[in-house]
Every structure is written in C-alpha cells, then in structure tokens.
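Researcher: Please generate the 3D structure of the following complex. Treat every line as part of one assembly.
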Amino acid sequence: MIKIDALTVQFGGIKPLDTLEAQFSAAICGLIGPNGAGKTTLLNVLSGFVKPLEGSILLNDAALLGLSPQRRVSLGLRRTFQQELVVDELTAMENIQAIADHVSADHASARREVAAALDFVGLSARRSVLGRQLNLFDRRMVEIGKTLIGRPKVILMDEPGAGLNEVETEQLRRLLIQIPSVFDTQLVLIDHDADLIASVCVETLVLDFGKRLAMGPTRAVLDDPVVRRAYLGRE
Amino acid sequence: MTEMSKAAPLPALAPPTAEITPRLRAITIVAVVGAVSVVIAFTCGGYWLSNFTQAYCMALAVLGCALLYGQLGLVSLCQWALVGVGGWVSLRFYHYVHPPFVLTILVGGIGASVIGMIWGLPALRMRGLYLALVTLMLAGAFQSLVTVISFPVGGPGFLGQVGASGNDRITMARPVFASGDTGYFLFVAVVTVLCIFLVEAHRRSKPGRAWALIRKNEQMAAASGVRIVFYKAWAFALSGFLAGVAGALLAGLFGQLDGSAFPTTTSIVIFIGTLLGGYDVWLGAFLGGVLTRFIPALLIDLNVNTNAGFMIFGAALLFALRDPLGLGGQLTLLAERLYSKFQAQRAS
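Model: Done. Output below.
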C-alpha cells in the first residue's frame, strides 16, 4: 500500500504536484489525468528520481522519501517507463536476469524467478532471442517480466499499453489482472486508455494540474461529470 | 571519458541463429590469438617481433578503451597515460622488492586500476565534450609529470633515479621462462588471451548486464536496483587494470621506460583503434590494438614519416563512421553466420 501525504513538487514557478493526498490500497490502482497533470512526475517521485519540496510517502509503513532509487527497489518497489527500455544487445532472459542480479536473494532463487517471469509473460520459448529482434509487444512483456522479480510489493507501470494494437491490449489486460494474485503484489497503472483502466483497475486516482481531482472506485470516478469534463473532454 | 547518450545504432543485418556457447567462444579466442601469435613468433624477429609485442600491449589498452565505450558509452582519452602509470608502478615495485615477474604485472595493473578509478570520477558527474577534454588534460598532465620525474631505474628514494650520470641504471628482468624475444612475445600473447577472457567473463555476467542497463538508461538501471556509481567505477578499474598490465609488459619488454614514450596523442590513437577494430567484440580490440602499432611500424620500416599514420587513421575513421561494427565486428558476424550455416547443414 502507498500512502501519499501533502506531496508538493516544484520546478521553478511550476508545481507539477501540489499538496497531493492519496492512498493506493486496492490490488490494482489506476492513475489518470490529462497530459501535464503530474502522473509521470508522481511516479518519478515514488521511484526516487524527483525530490519533492514537501510531503511524505509511505510504502507499507516505510517512509520512502530520502531513500535512493536502489534502496526503494530493495524495499519492493518496481516500475516500468513510458518508453520501453529493453536492451537490444541482451536476450529476453538476460534483460530480466539483469534485475534478478540485484534483487534476488541468491542464484537459485534468481534462476527460479526469471523462469517464472518468462513463463508468466509468455516468453519462455523466446528467452534466447535478442532484445533487438523482439517485436513491441514482446518488448513490453520483457519490461513487465522485469518488474516481477524479487517479490515486488508495488509495481508502477507507466503506459504499458502504449503502441499496442487491440488484440495485444486485450492480452495485456488479461495479464495485468493476474499479476496481484500470482505475485502477491500491488499494481499502480498509468494509461491513457480509459477502457483498459476501467476494465483492470479497482480504484483510480485522477490528477489535474498536479492536484487530486477525484479518487475512488474506478467506474464511479470515470462516471464523475467533473472527471469527464477535465479528462475525457465530455460530460 | 565522455559519456555518449546514444551510441550509433548497429546495422540491421540478419542475425546468426546458432548459439555461440561460452566454451566455443573461449576456444575461438585461444585458436585465433594462438594461431596468429605462433605465426608471428616463428616468422618474425628483431624489429618486427618487438613491434608485435608492443602491438599486443596496445591491444590490451584498446581492450580497456573498448570496454568503457562498448559497455557504457564512455570515451576514454587517457588510456595510454594509464599504460604509463602501470609501467611506472611495476618498475617502482620491481626495484623495491624484486618480485616474480607475474606479481609485478599484477601490481602494475592494480596501480593503474586505482588511478583509472580516480580519473574516472569526473565521469560520474560530467558528460559530453567537457568530460572528454578533462580526461585528455589528465593524459597531458601525466605526460608532463612523467617527463619531470621519469621512470624508476633502480636508484634510491621514491622516484628511484640514479642521478645525471646514469651509470647505475638497472633494467627490469624478464621472467626466466620467457627471457628471449620470442619467448617473451609468446608470454605476452598468453597474458593477452587471459585479459580477453577476463573482459569476456565480465561482459557476459552480472557486471556486463548492469553496464548494459546503465548504457541504455541510467534511471531504468537505478530502478532495476543497479548501483550506478559502483558499476561505473568497476568499469574504470577494469579498464585501468588492462592498461596497467600493458604498461608492465612494456616495461618487461624494454627493461625500462622513458617519459617521451607516453605522449597524449597516443591515447587518441587508441580510441581510433577502438572504433576501427570494433568495440563490441574482443576481436575488434585485438585487431584495433595490433593495427595502431603495426601501421606506424610499417611506415618506419618503409622510411615514411610516421605522421602519415595519422592521415591513414583519419581516412580509416571514415570507414568506422559508416560501419559501427568495425573490422572485428564484421569478421565476427561473418564467422557466426558461417557457423550457423554449418550447424544448419549438419542438422539437416
């Protein structure tokens, strides 16, 4: 569970996040908002890449602010990025092994976890294929596979469905729904695809200009006229 | 060392399909370097044997340079100065302790490794051209320093000098099992193979994967649990170690070293050799290193001004810009394709 309290980020005269209060407690949580709402900034603060002006963040009662990104990883925080970042020169398995090297307890558990992650994302048969030879969907699967290593507590995913077609998005949806139960973890998902958010996320936070516009059960939030006007552009 | 945000994309060639196992790769390294070395050892003598021994030392320096550039996108322009550091430390250690030659090499490598790590510290904060200039200036500073203090020759004190007369200069002895020129060349070849193994072991294990993540994106690497500073420092240390070993081997070849042998420009030539040979494969470093020594030696042999070498390297760089794989990369790709075809035929 992630608890955010009075979180403010300031870049010069701009506040991408402004006294934000939120709590992600459901198994799969959504994070939506128009461009520039502060979604990725929030993920960057959670990951340790942006230092907030004030506020606090708790990950299962552990204070995150002040910790290095690597320390947050060891506490069980994982993330994917908006742009897929699979290493072309490493195979699918090596890309996942690269995180197991640093978060798994030992060699045996690393091997086990990498095999389980490859199996879960459907890449077992293509484990030896180089990153540069994988298609976009498989590369996205590698990215997700990386987050499943080392008993993650919370996985932050920044637009995992970007660039995928309808069939692939449906495959992704089925996969995302299974992650919390199979890996005993929580998922926080950013995506512009409202249908994906609606079908996957139990509760959703809507940001607008760095402030909390709404938070609650996803269906209720998406049906909220204020949210529809600000985010979906329709009443 | 300057950090390149994005290395040039490799050409989209049809990749070979047969898996190259670590054992096969090790056999290939031994076979290629072994065959080339045996041919050189039994066909060359005097001038050429000495130059090929230097070329192998150069190959070790290029191997370190290629490690930094290929794995982390860092451009080292002080690699030859680190070779000088390795030579200085090994000579100093030899004259103090008179240890076995292999131990002298290790100490030279470790000394340059430590200095390389310190010189790499700016790379943790600086990027781009500024960083390249800083490392080049470090190489220049070493050249100035070593011109003043010179290399130890068995005299008293820390600097180990013997005064103006120079009557009591002591040279570093080669190992007893490789005291002759041919024996020493083969010894250097064995050390070269071991160093290639060391780099390959790094590239294909935990550090290599961590470097690959760092090169791709530092934030992504940090979000994968990689300690960026530690792994960058590790790369600098390994690169410095290779340069230091090269310096110690050069000290063993000549018995003593001279400050004028470590000009700043050679560090630039080493980087050119890295690009020409190819920075992603061991063969690239080997060929790059040999070429950067072989061409000047050939020019001397032909009584041509050695500055013509810079023109040749400049022209060859045009080739390197068009082909990021480099000579070694192209040869490796060709060999892997032939192996894949052979395996496919055998399977059918």
